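Would you be willing to look carefully at the protein I have copied below?

:::
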Amino acid sequence: MARYRHELKYDCDSYRFSIIRNNLSGIMELDGNVVDGGYSIRSLYFDNYTDDAFYEVENGEGLKRKWRIRIYNSSKDRITLERKQKNGELTYKEAVPISYEDYFKIIDNTIDFKDADTELYKEFILDLKTKLLKPACIVDYYRTPFVLFDGNVRITFDEQISYSVDFEHFFDSDLPLQRITQETDSLLEVKYDDFLPDFITEVLHRNLLIRQSYSKFYLCSSHFNKGEY
């Protein structure tokens, strides 16, 4: 059963990335899905016609909810519909699989309740139709993930954060993308359940990392809204 988890975010340059990765490699393992050091993540986020999800982040409102469709390494093999809720540093994510065909029904707004086989999927379709949700922004990045069983800790480094609004070509490995981060920048995220082991906290503090409020969806949408495409 899904539960709320702590989520901490830090800006991290390439120098600190290298040091922290070396520190973590002796105490944590790479995620079992990793191939050649990491994998790419691509998410299509939804918003309504008044951009409520965008402004929830901009205005710093307490509870934020976002719908997204996510794939890995541009593959059709694993497509998930996700609802993520965030309240401060606590996050809660629910996910169900959807089909490749359903993806195009969703972006064409021809999806129907008869296509849904789970409650979460039905709730998404209800929001799609009553709140007039629409595809808002594609967010793409490369992730290096470390995991630790104690505390269910997950530490990820996200690089090459980019965006697109070419929703029809979501699955294309050569989808044209607009980068929003420098080559040397990455985002470090720390996720855990009830406690964060002291030795991980020490690694973060030793490298003088500073907590940030960082939403990849918001930053990518900001660039698109400014016409930087």
In short: The chain has one domain: 5-225. Residues 6 and 165 are 30 Å apart (CA to CA). The longest strand covers residues 134-148. The two ends are 40 Å apart (CA to CA).
